Amino acid sequence: MAIERVCIIGAGTIGSLYAGHLADVAEVLVLTRRPEHADALNQHGLRVTGKSERHVRVTASTDPGELPEFDLGIVATKATDLEAIAQRLEGRFAGAAMMTIQNGLGAEEVMRRHGEWRLISAVTFMSGNRRGDAEVEYELDTATWMGPYAGTETPFAIVRDACELLLACGLQAEAMSDLRPAQWSKLIFNAAVNGVAALTELPHVAEFAAEARPADLGHLVHDLIAEGVRVADAAGVELHDDPWEMNRRAVTRGETNRSDYAHLPSMLEDVLARRPTEVDAISGALVREGERVGVPAPLNAAVWRLVRGKERSWAGAARTSPEEVRA
Amino acid sequence: MAIERVCIIGAGTIGSLYAGHLADVAEVLVLTRRPEHADALNQHGLRVTGKSERHVRVTASTDPGELPEFDLGIVATKATDLEAIAQRLEGRFAGAAMMTIQNGLGAEEVMRRHGEWRLISAVTFMSGNRRGDAEVEYELDTATWMGPYAGTETPFAIVRDACELLLACGLQAEAMSDLRPAQWSKLIFNAAVNGVAALTELPHVAEFAAEARPADLGHLVHDLIAEGVRVADAAGVELHDDPWEMNRRAVTRGETNRSDYAHLPSMLEDVLARRPTEVDAISGALVREGERVGVPAPLNAAVWRLVRGKERSWAGAARTSPEEVRA
User: Fold this and answer.
1) What is the structure's pLDDT at B10?
2) pTM
3) Which one of A77, A191, A236, B198 has the largest count of C-beta atoms within 10 Å of its C-beta?
4) Cβ of B92: how many Cβ atoms within 10 Å?
């Protein structure tokens, strides 16, 4: 399959990074939620700064009915917005392959309930910062890993084509026959690191690997990860990476070669902005998988319930302000 | 022992409630941390509003050396301030009995390291709101329970005298030969309810007893309490109250007969004011007791580590404001 036209479905930070690069090698459509976002992209194009510099043309719309057929869809919404967008795609673009890159587990199943698209599972380690509706900064130029959605008939050739397209426009990518080892490594890492960041409001800093004193946070991160690894074992998934080593390397300069590494995990971004988080798809998914395979995950369940409780506190935030308490 | 002179050591909400009432039946001294607090009390006296109305004279100072001998000291600082005040009391007031009312465990041991006072263990369920340095509102007129510090030679007669003094001035009180069953009931309740409130920033509301759906917070509160009960069992403490029932009753109108019950646990007050919390003396104490008796308490350890992590996030709060993330 020659991929000539790509549709980026949801142009947050990650979707914008794909759109901005892929426009070098394909025609790029963008499906947005907000009309003013589509207008900005149609008028001004999309600018990428940081690790690469680009200014490209894209065709954006909020209405799937206005978009032409495409070969590859990259579904880049938050996990929390996936159900809504999948409903709007239902009955359309039957010829496209759809690649899901959401955090956590379960994105492919949501898509499957709404159409017969060939599905590509993916995880990405890229990061960036939106600078507005028509500009995104490329921060970590790390890989997207992809594979056929396990247990379906998505041919590996399509995955390889999508991978080559990403490589051709300068992104990092790798095609794998089975993505689950990588998907689960990231799931277990995210459940621990995003969950602890969301609850402590600490960015991903050295404390996440500290285990010298009993109250040190590294013990909890380690225990959350160990619980996730036990669930993966019971689910028959052999992990691609050791999530504890991923955590340790990230906060000890190994990944970034910067001593001031203090990445803001996406779930902490959501917490600080008081948006619903992806905790259901991350910690919640791990807990549900644990139940399915008969391995309890009480610490991940605790994180899940606490983050959900924290989300509910925002509704009642007017009850007591810090100023009233400090007074 | 006739108790004629009482010293309130630390006049936050609870200390002020004791001072305001006890002045009816004894001479009341107050040891404060801030000079302006002592000045306000000496100039204006102390006013109590709410469940009882009083305006009394007290003698306040920041300097233990300025205070005369007294019969009973009520040590009412936060657990986090206890070590500092115990150091300042060292070598003084040898004839006094000292009653500790801190949340959690370990206050008596801190005092013991600094003097030979006869020690009374106490827990209080009173609550109120400070309205300034010289005024406090009495909210819940519930009991103070007290007993001889277990394993020491504090005679029960002193405890009974202290209890009668509290009753004489209109407070609720009960003397017990062994306080540990009550102290541990409150410890386990506080570790769960204060910890979950501090992390979710929810006041103590109905969600704390909700167990209908897998993500409901009541599961976590229940599991935290079950863990604490197992530690108590192994430590040979038979609980005075079932902490889960304490939680359930509190949020289902049983205690307050109010449908809008939403008590702000003290650890959440500290979080909202960005003050150090008492989590070391509460969740931390439970974890340490668990280790001592060979019963792990991983969920309480998680709460301990997360709250400690959250405290550290305040130092770096300038790194990213919610406004920057929302933008």
Assistant:
1) 97
2) 0.89
3) A191
4) 15
In this prediction, residue A300 carries a pLDDT of: 98
Please report, for chain B, the start and end positions of each structural domain, with discontinuous segments joined by +: 5-177, 181-317
Minimal CA separation from B215 to chain A, in Å:
5
Three-state DSSP state, A279: coil
Hey, do A5-177 and A181-317 end up sharing a CATH topology, with the first three levels equal? no
pLDDT number for residue B1:
63
Of A202, A280, A313, the CB nearest to B309: A202
User: ipTM for the complex?
Assistant: 0.88
Residues A256-267 as b or e (16 or more Cβ within 10 Å = b):
beeeebebbbbb
- Contact call for B305 and A217, based on CB within 8 A: yes
Per-residue pLDDT tens for A52-96? 999 999 999 999 999 999 999 999 999 999 999 999 999 999 999
Q: What is the pLDDT of residue A1?
A: 63
The superfamily CATH assigns to domain A5-177 is: NAD(P)-binding Rossmann-like Domain (3.40.50.720)
For chains A and B, CB pairs below 8 A equal 131
Fold for A181-317, please state it: N-(1-d-carboxylethyl)-l-norvaline Dehydrogenase; domain 2 (1.10.1040)
Answer whether B213 touches A (CB < 8 Å): no
Question: Which uninterrupted H or E stretch holds A46?
Answer: strand A46-50
In Å, how far is B4's CA from the nearest CA of chain A? Answer: 34
